[in-house]
Amino acid sequence: MLFLPQLLKLLFYKELQTKLIEANNGDTIQLPEGTFNMPGGLSMEGKENILIKGAGTDKTFISFKGQTTGAEGIKISNCTGVTLAGFTVQDAKGDGIKLQKVNGLTITNVKAEWTGKPSEKNGGYGLYPVQCRNVLIDSCTAIGASDAGIYVGQSENIIVRNCKAFHNVAGIEIENSSYADVYNNEAWENTGGVLIFDLPDLPVKRGTQARVFNNNIHNNNHSNFAPKGNIVATTPLGTGMLLLAAKQVEVFGNKIDNNRTAGIAVASYYITEKPLKDTAYYPYPEDIYIHNNSITRKRERATMQGRMGKMFRFKLKFGKDVPNIIYDGIADSKNARPVICLSGNNEETFANIDAGNSFKNISRDAKIYQCKGKSYEPVNLAKL
Fold it and tell me: Which helix (H) or strand (E) holds 79?
């Protein structure tokens, strides 16, 4: 027998899922004020120009705390012109909101969170567009993801702005994607604040042209709670920004403070020590331009946790004099272009740690990296 609260929960869930299935192109689906507990995941597929709108992030709560079916909280796929606005998704069994193969996506004033303490049992991603085009994520919040709070992967034409991310493993991550602007965001109390990754074994390879600018990336010193085996599980606490095998990235105008291990780290895929079998993958970073950032840190030792911690302690021996910008030094011998250009950063302390040569020739000389790198045009989202 179903008690009245259970019956009402089931009726609302079925009503909302029916609206998502039966929506006509151009419809608005209104989410009322209140907290609504979902027993299963919600999904929508193959629609055009749909607006899903709540009464506000502090008024409309879609909770999946008791979710028993579905791999995500909300999944939207194979759509054109989708807007999500003004609601909070909580405690999804898997990812909070996954959007796959959507062209023309706007997520504004949406929060994805796990309400308990940060835990590897939390879902991997809060806001999770993958294989999408023309993506705008604006004024959103992500809390508690065991992988990345705001993640855009294998996508093209992306803007992430005015967002907040904290208590995630990675606050904001752009992965295997091209033409991304990440700006005016705040990332704090994550393991890593902002990550730009290019990884093997994915259908979309060699992401390019990301601009990361005017962000406030501070105090990202949370312990890493990613499940073992995840690539972000290798991110050391205290990482402000990590550019892993990233290509054509311009980093400028950011305020990067009090990240214990590195303000900005640039590394090849080989630093992960994971096997590499994808012959079409290019594992080196290239064309990284870091300029006019404010980078500061407390005078303290870097993390002592995990393999990265051991590397800092026994190999690098920086003590409390940890450089703000760290490069693993593993470069493509066939590429004569500078991997990194540095210009106009305050406290531009630097180290090439020579990781590919057993750290034998660690150099803190930033002068050879003083150059003007490539700048890129702002991202323009296509009108559909």
Answer: strand 69-90
Q: How far apart are CA 213 and CA 195, in angstroms?
A: 13
CB environment 362-376: b (16+ within 10 A), e (fewer): beeebeebeeebeeb
Q: Which residues contact 94 (CB under 8 A, 6 or more apart)?
A: 70, 71, 72, 73, 123, 124
Whether 3 shows a pLDDT value over 60: the answer reads no
C-alpha to C-alpha distance for 126 and 148, rounded to whole angstroms: 7
Average pLDDT over residues 128-132: 98
The larger pLDDT score, comparing residue 6 to residue 298, is at: 298
Q: Among the residues of the chain, which ranges form H helices? A: 4-22, 306-310
Could you read off the pLDDT of 325-378 as tens digits, one per residue? Answer: 999 999 998 887 779 999 999 988 999 999 989 889 999 999 999 999 999 999
Residues 213-231 have a mean pLDDT of 94
Q: What whole-number distance in Å separates Cα of residue 44 and Cα of residue 61?
A: 19
Q: What pTM was computed for the model?
A: 0.95
Q: Element (H or E) spanning 63, and its range?
A: strand 60-63
**What is the C-alpha separation between 44 and 200, in angstroms, rounded?**
30
Measure the CA–CA gap between 156 and 326, rounded to whole angstroms: 28
Give residues with Cβ within 8 angstroms of 59, minimum separation 6: 33, 34, 86
